[in-house]
From TrEMBL:
Family, per entry: Belongs to the binding-protein-dependent transport system permease family. FecCD subfamily.
One term under GO cellular component: plasma membrane
A Pfam entry, by short name: FecCD
GO terms for MF: transmembrane transporter activity
Region annotated Disordered, chain positions: 1-42
Main location group: membrane
Entry's localization field: Cell membrane
Membrane topology recorded in Swiss-Prot or TrEMBL: Multi-pass membrane protein
Cross-referenced Gene3D superfamilies: ABC transporter involved in vitamin B12 uptake, BtuC (1.10.3470.10)
Record's protein name: Iron compound ABC transporter permease protein
The species this protein was found in: Streptomyces clavuligerus
Alphabetized UniProt keyword annotations: Cell membrane, Membrane, Transmembrane, Transmembrane helix, Transport
SUPFAM superfamilies: ABC transporter involved in vitamin B12 uptake, BtuC (SSF81345)
GO biological process: siderophore-iron import into cell
Length: 361
């Protein structure tokens, strides 16, 4: 009922019209929002059941590839057992850890920047990491992988600071502007990296980093990714602090949160995850963007309760893309990040269009 208006009696012989909820009943007023749904499939799905689904994908990843390995061969064929332990197990573990790293990095950056469209590959952080590895390769060709990871993490941290500095100097009229700024900065750094690589005959090595494939992952090369476990545990323990920091500097400070310290810790975690992942497997686009957003749309914005779902969903998506890449052109394979990039780009565009649609309502 509109304020200031009285209901008119129904005409003789006619039933009174019943106003349905959600209809526009007053001039100039918006209709009431539709009633909330009872729950999304992800909200109703038990976490143990989702874990079993991910374990099924992990099992498929262990036994699917360019050469056949089955449980009977593992028990009877020493060569098959050796290849299984040298190649298949490290590759699958790298898929799991890299997916968790990028998904958690996306969650942290989205909270700190207060924008749902950011993650390491849309803020230029990954491009800065690649630049750090390239410069270290030129200056110290015999550098160990751990030194390269340190350089990549340091440059990724610097890139995140540059991104935040630029954001603080421009007027943000829409949430879409933030990833556009990050993509532009990333393109600038990427062009510098490409110029240096072309001038020093390192284009092939740069292309390998950018391909983000897992085919070359073997035992002895993926182990640094275990640091991701520390980052996931740290995010889960400090989820409340990151959530408060995401409310903005003034609000977080008024609530007694050491804002600068939390920002430093969060950016350090993102830089470390990005640097390690870049050195071990290369770029992994859009994973930290689409998975946290889809989980948030399905389950709400509780970071601590969403984190297990973010990790499981990112692992499932990464392994599924890798399996598609292995099977489509078997016995050759398409890098998992190529498949993921195609899927992620479509979802990213849909998210932007959806955001624009909300802005015009």
């Amino acid at each position: 009922m509109c304020p200031g208006r009285r209901a008119r009696p129904a005409a003789p012989g006619l039933r009174a019209h019943r106003i349905r909820p959600g209809r526009r009943t007053c001039p100039g007023r918006h209709p009431a929002p539709p009633p909330a749904r009872s729950g999304s499939p992800m909200r109703r799905l038990p976490l143990p059941l989702a874990t079993l689904g991910v374990l099924a994908l992990v099992t498929a990843s262990l036994f699917v590839g360019g050469y056949d390995i089955d449980p009977h061969a593992l028990l009877t064929d020493p060569e098959a057992r050796r290849m299984f332990l040298i190649s298949r197990v490290p590759r699958t573990l790298a898929l799991i850890l890299a997916a968790a790293a990028m998904a958690v990095s996306g969650v942290i950056m989205q909270m700190l920047v207060q924008n749902r469209f950011v993650e390491p590959t849309t803020t230029g952080t990954s491009e800065w990491a690649a630049l750090g590895v390239l410069l270290l390769t030129l200056l110290v060709p015999a550098a160990s992988p751990m030194v390269k990871m340190g350089a990549a993490s340091a440059f990724a941290f610097a890139g995140a600071l540059v991104f935040l500095f630029v954001l603080g100097r421009i007027a943000l009229t829409s949430q879409v502007i933030v990833p556009i700024v990050g993509i532009m900065l990333g393109a600038l750094i990427s062009s510098v990296t490409l110029y240096i690589a072309s001038s020093t005959n390192l284009l092939q090595m740069l292309a390998t980093w950018r391909s983000g494939g897992f085919s070359s992952v073997v035992r002895g090369s993926y182990e640094p990714l275990w640091v991701v476990g520390v980052i996931v545990v740290g995010l889960y323990a400090a989820a409340d602090r990151f959530t408060i920091a995401g409310l903005g500097r003034s609000t977080a400070t008024s609530l007694g949160l050491p804002y600068r310290r939390v920002m430093f810790i969060g950016l350090s975690m993102v830089a470390l995850a990005t640097g390690v992942t870049t050195v071990v497997v290369g770029f992994i686009p859009f994973l930290g963007l689409i998975v946290p957003n889809l989980v948030s749309m399905a389950r709400g914005d509780n970071v601590r309760s969403n984190l297990p779902w973010v990790v499981l969903s990112s692992v499932a998506l990464m392994i599924a893309c890798d399996l598609v890449g292995r099977l489509v052109v078997r016995p050759m394979e398409i890098p998992a990040t190529v498949v993921l990039g195609a899927v992620g780009a479509v979802v990213f565009v849909v998210m932007i269009l959806r955001q624009r649609g909300k802005a015009h309502v």
